[in-house]
Structure formats: C-alpha cells, structure tokens
Amino acid sequence: MNRFSYLLKTALLILIFPCACTAAVKEPNVAGAFYPADKKKLGDEVDRYLSQSADPPDSGRLLAIVAPHAGYIYSGGVAGYSYARLKGRDIRTVILLAPTHYAAITGAAIYPGSAMKTPLGAVRVDEALSRSFIDEKAGVRLAAEPFEQEHSLEVQLPFLQRVLKDFSIVPVLIGRMTPDSYRHLGDKIAALLKKDETAIIVISTDLSHYHDSTTASVKDRKVLDAVARLAAGDLERLLSSGEGEACGGGPVLYGMAAARGAGATEAKVYRHADSGDVSGDRKRVVGYGAAGFYKKELSPATRADILKLAKETVHAQVTGKPLPVWSGSDQRMKADGAVFVTLKEKNGRLRGCIGTISAYTSLHQSISQNAVAAASKDPRFSPVRPEELSGLDIEVTVLSPMEPVSGLSEIQVGTHGVYLEASGRSSVFLPQVPLEQGWDLDTYLRELALKAGLGPDGWKSGRLQRFTAEIVH
Q1: Which of 44, 111, 325, 346 falls between 20 and 30 A from 10, CA-CA?
Q2: Would the CA dihedral through 274, 275, 279, 281 be positive or negative?
C-alpha cells in the first residue's frame, strides 16, 4: 500500500468512526506527595479536616469559597473550614479557579479533557460548559499543557469528592491577568451563577510566602480584610504593592468579580493559619486562609443601622456638627456597596438625591458620603436648612451590581432600576421611581432619555443596564 492510499484509508476510518477518539482523563500528579495516594487514607484524612470546622452553617446563598492548596499536612485543616460549608448544599457544578505555578500563560486555560482523577475516583469535567467559556480574543482557551504539573487545582478535588455527590467541574487555571480575560470570565461565571443556583466557585490560593510568622500575619490579614470586604480595588493594590501576597491573587480577583456580578453582598473569613502552626518553624512560613462569598438580603438589624447612620449624618451635616463615625461589626456594612440617599419633604416632593452606581467603598462609607451630598451638594436644590430637618423623610437604596440589557423584556417596571449611557451622557432612575410616577415602560425609558439631556428616543441608540435594589426608609 503506497503512502497516499494509507493516508486516505486512515482518513476514511476517522470519518466513519469519529467516536473512536475519546477526550483525555487527567491522572493525578501529586498523589503521594501533597496528599495520600491510598484511597482509604486519603478519605479518612479529608474527613478529619472537615470535622475540625465546628462553626454553624451560614445563612444566605454561598456563591464562592476560598481554600489553600499546599500539602494537606500544612493547609488541609484550613481548607476543611471552607469545604465544611458545602455539606448539605445542593451543588452540581463547580467552577475551579486556580493559579499556575509552572506554565507561563496569559489570560486563562481551561482543561479540555473529560475528567480529572484522584485516588478517590474520577471527577467529571463539564465539557459543554467549559467550551462555552472559551473566547480566544479574551485569552481564554482550551489547553491541557498548563495542567500537567500543576497542583493548585488538583488538591481541591478530594475535598469536593467527600462533600458533594453528583457534580461536575470546569477546571480553570489563571495566568497573567488581562482586562479582557477578567471581564469575560467574570461575566460568564456570574451569568451561570445567576441562572443555576446549584453552581458555585472554588478559588484556590495560598497567602504570603517565606516570611517570619509576624510579618506573614500582617500581610495575610491585610489580604483577608480586603477579601472580607469584597474590596477588589484594595486587594489589587495590596498585591501589586507587595503589602499583601497571594499566589492565587488572580483567581481571587476573578472569582470576586464573578461573585459580585452574581449578587454577592458580603464575605466571611473562616480561618487563618500558617505552616509554622504545624512545622514549628516561625522564621519562614506560608500563609493560608479560608473564606466564603455570600448573597444575603439586608437583615432588620442592618436596615435599622443603615437608616440610623443616614439620618444622623444628614442632621450633622445640616447643623454643622461632627459627622458620625460608624464603628459596628456588621459585615454587610463593611463590604463595598453602592447606595443612593434620597431626601423627601412630607408631601413627597424630592429635596435631594445623590448616589453611586458602582461599589467602590464600604457600604457605611457610601451611606455617609451620599447622605452628606444629598443634603448639601445636589445641584438641583439649595442645601437643606436646619428648620427643614423635622419635615424630611430619608430613604436609602442599596443597589445590586449593574448588568447589561439585551432586550426590553428584561426590564420589569418596579423591579429594575435602569442606567443609560448615550452620546457621552448618562442618567439613572431607581426602581421605585416609575412606580411613584405611574409610568409604563415606554414612559420610563423616555423620561430616562430626557433626564440625560437627549431626545425622547435617545435611549434607543444608547447602552442600557439594569439593577435591582433593597430600599430602606
């Protein structure tokens, strides 16, 4: 048989039997090193780590957890605090975000195979979902090579296998961060979390490396404080300046963006430790942290705190007294939040309304800043006078993250606020405005365009984003 005939025959066989080639199953590469290679020993060790977390279950929807990825003898006890939170939850899809230690990649790589194995068995990869995340222009690609030596993702699998039953994974390794990959993955994962309540993110990271325990503790606590406040800007600054360290800093930022986009309102740090707690060597340690990102509604206590702070701030601003300083422990108030503060006269007439559409500072700081601005800096009104205070109603609107609108059917009057950008102009209405004014959707959008200084149809050539809100009054 000549070479041409052989190649032709081989090609025909491939066409006739396309299912003869199956996707790769990745074998474990750190079993026996980072964790036991024996199935029973591994299961017993993971169960022991899980049992050490005695904290009660948290309320709200858990959107993401953060767990370390060192050898189990050092970090397994910390990881157990995160994974114990998954017990009893109906989780079917896990998006794994982990850093690369050996392969130099830009953007992100997603494993192209069908499964990843540990001594506890094979974990199925959701290949269809994995492919839906791919965007070559954004630098998010299918690639097996970066996973060949990597441990940061693999060491999370046995924990998942012990706390979950029927689940699949999307394994993602984050390399050098780029704005495009950050936006693309953040948006894609957020959309999945909003659509599928059985999905969750697992973020793999260790903290500071090879400092004495005192120095490490200072660096680690700065990072964990930013994580607990969902303060992506602060975290990025800490990592870029060296004030804080995290080898999975990229995955934490990507995961935080996705969780925020899906409505995360607060975070909780479960545990912090370092390798010296096990080895006894305090001169050169690696830090580990466990945390979770949650979506929760405002509690009655938080609502009361919000209104009290807004009212006291307005009164102090108008009467020339020192502004109140919030010093509570409510994690929701500490987390970054976007709010509007609205002042109305008793007859319902607007007296001032200022706010922010993006969360860039803590909720309590945003309330204070916007309460001051609503009382004194709204360009449509003169500053509030002391004699008006007794006749003012104060309303605080806490905004969800913005999301793009692809069709008008996605805007529900009374549920969604709308933000418009067009021709270098912008305007926003809070969800309660069209209800108060008795507008239908057409009137809502027309008034939005007019508020931006556009023609009544100006919204048609602009970019619309929607949001929901929790209203405290």
Answers
A1: 111
A2: negative
Give the span between the Cα atoms of 253 and 247, in whole angstroms. 12
pTM of this structure: 0.90
Beta-bridge partner residues of 350? 344
- Give residue limits of the domains in the chain: 16-295, 300-472
- What is the rounded CA–CA span in Å between residue 261 and residue 248? 20
Residue with tokens 């230690």: 101
Which residues make Cβ contacts (< 8 Å) with residue 216, sequence separation at least 6?
207, 208, 274, 285, 286, 287
- Pick the more confident residue, 74 or 12: 74
Cα 268 from Cα 227, distance rounded (Å)? 8
CATH class of 16-295: alpha beta
CA distance 50 to 35: 15
Q: Please give the helix or strand (H or E) that residue 471 lies within, else none.
A: strand 469-472
The residues pairing with 471 across neighbouring beta strands, listed in sequence order, are 397
Give pLDDT tens digits for 424-463: 999 999 999 999 999 999 999 999 999 999 999 999 999 9
Average pLDDT of every residue of the chain: 93
Distance from first CA to last CA of the chain, Å, rounded?
Answer: 85
Q: Are 119 and 143 in contact (CB under 8 A)?
A: no
The one-letter code for the residue type at 8 is L
CATH architecture of 300-472: 2-Layer Sandwich (3.30)
